[in-house]
Amino acid sequence: MSRTTGSQSSLREANRTLVIETVKEFGGLTQVELIDATGLSAATVSTIVKELTSSGVVDTQPTSRSGRRAQMVTLSPQTGLVAGVHVARRQIRVLLGDFSYTTLASTSLPVPFDQPADTGLDRIALLLAEMIDGVGRSTSDLLAVGIACPAPVDATGMVSVRGLMPGWEDEQIGELVAKRLGCAVHVDNDANLGALAEVTLGASREVADSLWLTVSDGVGAGLVLGRRVHRGFAGAAGEIGHVQVDPTGSICRCGNRGCLETVVGAEALLAPLRPLHPHLTLRDLVDRAVHGDAGCRRVIADAAATIGRVVGSVCQMVNPPMVVVGGPLAESGEVFLEPLRAALAQHTIRHLLGPVEVVPSRLGSTAEVTGALVLAVQRTDVTHRSET
Amino acid sequence: MTDTPMHAGTTALHDLGPAPVADDARTPVLSVLGVSKRFGAVEALVECSLDLYAGEVVALVGDNAAGKSTLAKVIAGVLQPDAGYLEIDGQPVSLPGPGAARQHGIAAVFQDLGVCDNLDVTANVFLGQERTHRGLLDQGGMERVSREVLSMIGANVPSLRTPVGRLSGGQRQGVAIARTMLGEPRVVVLDEPMASLGVVQTAEVLTHLDRLRSLGMAVLVIGHNLNDLRAVADRIEVLRHGRNNGSFDGPTSRNDEIIGAITGAWRQ
């Protein structure tokens, strides 16, 4: 945030913006935390919060911090509706909420593997319209939508890598949904948005640098540096699923050989279990592992060790204090996390401050869709809207 | 996802844990073998065959009057075949009525659902099989079991005391499926569960189907929308003019192949 020097009024304006951006960045925080995070004086923060409350930009609610009364500051729920959409390979998840990050409705629609873009986009628009109707609001209240895609997305919102999202790659996904719903639509990669959700509202909120790791149909990561998601030049940063782990391995859908995903993607994990369980899904695998099935536990532990080698290299390069793990495999808890920790310890240098902390996602299966909603909130200019 | 054991009064319902490995062994839970059914001049089914395995969702598709509902009714014991027979676990059985089918662990939910709009959720789940405790209705026990079976299939209802007439189409479908769970079925047949539902409700029903598979049941679902069916089906069976006209793998098959088989552009 650049601070302008100059007149009193431009200083006040800059401070106002700083407060709003900080509230957006942390989702919601107490007035005391706001003083810390912005570096402004208590009096300034108090004045600005009062001003913003009366103009309807933010909302304050009494809460408590370490047993003391405090004022929780969020963006105002009256601003309007906002939605997050996660287009995963086997489901579309939609989350409808307001600007204070209160969830109003959520739905998850199973979809076939190769769902064509036209059907998918129609479904997204219909789901949102029905959900908005279900909470007794109108689509004109919807101000912004964020969409999480299972492929890297460039700065213009186009899928930037071929082979990962067949049938959707040439579509202006953002524009097409915007046309159907009549609001702003922002598109980003799902791993980046999972990382954004955890740093804004989840497990990595307290640390500046962290790595988000998700193990689902594929493997992905999102890198957070100084509380900002590092997207990279084509939006492909953190695509660890396409790091080579087996030079003689199978050809990956991305076109390279022996990618991590070919070894620990859903299909690769389930294949050795097929003779015993022909219709096993990733979720069944995790269920069985949690209930003590030795074979399923072994598959997950081996996957964690392989993933740990790649994540270890990333941790060696970036040295984050925390790795947040999401996706269905993380729901098996220590079955996955324990061997991952062991692999990270083996593949990173030991330093005196202790090993990298490996924690499960706080948002769980809703991390990506929550990140999409956070993206929509953060990209919306709430000040001008409330003044009009 | 929970590992809470389920106890319904003195009758234990399904253990929520994963189905035992033996369930996946390759003997079909239910086989339909060369079944024919005729209504006057109409040949509704002609030497029709179908295998259902535990932990598998099979979608049965076909044009109008292809015999889908007739086959469902034969499996549910509502209609008796003119020729051919059914096997359960490899043993021939005859199903002279719906009660016999239920005793063999076959549950069916038909298009009209058979729910009573004026009764609440619990009363509908236990309709016709109410539990009593010392001569009185065991309301508390029935509510507990209702809550358990609804959560088992992933159904959300606002309150168990809501009259079913006030629920959405997807929620009503959930109540109808929950009711079948009381009989601890191994085969669940659903006739057009997504007909005339919105997308949000379709999402709910598809989630129920997925949940039934995870509980280790063999699920047969009849429908029209290939996109929805292929979202959850492991296998797609096509009927055309009462005859089998193709079997497709859910995840890898393409819509156009299946449509070809439905319309007759492609013949087995």
Please, could you describe this protein's structure?
By secondary structure, chain A is an alpha/beta fold. Chain A is built from 13 helices and 13 strands. Chain A has three domains: 68 residues, Arc Repressor Mutant, subunit A (Orthogonal Bundle), CATH 1.10.10; 135 residues, Nucleotidyltransferase, domain 5 (2-Layer Sandwich); 155 residues, ATPase, nucleotide binding domain (Nucleotidyltransferase, domain 5). In chain A, α5 links the parallel β7 and β8. In chain B, a hairpin with a 2-residue loop joins β7 and β8. In chain B, α4 crosses α5, α5 runs parallel beside α6 and α6 runs parallel beside α7. The termini of chain B are far apart. The N terminus of chain B is likely disordered. At the A-B interface, β6, α4 and α9 of A face α6 and α7 of B.
N- to C-terminal distance of chain A: 25 Å
Helix percentage range of chain B: 25-40%
Low-confidence stretches of chain B: 1-24
Biggest interface between chains: A-B, 31 and 30 residues
Our count of helices of chain B gives: 8
Based on the coordinates given, report the CATH architecture of chain B: 3-Layer(aba) Sandwich
Q: What is the class of the largest domain in chain A in the CATH system?
A: Alpha Beta
Order of helices and strands of chain A: HEHHEEEEEHEHEHEEEHHHHEHEHH
In spatial order, strands of the major sheet of chain A run 6-5-4-7-8
CATH class value of chain B: Alpha Beta
Question: Can you give me a brief rundown of this structure?
Answer:
The complex is a heterodimer of chains A (388) and B (268). Chain A has helices spanning 8-26, 31-38, 42-54, 117-134, 173-181, 190-201, 260-264, 266-270, 282-290, 294-318, 334-347, 367-378, 382-387; strands at 28-30, 58-65, 68-75, 81-87, 91-98, 103-110, 142-149, 184-189, 210-215, 219-225, 228-230, 322-326, 357-360. With 388 residues, chain A is α/β, with parallel strands linked by helices.
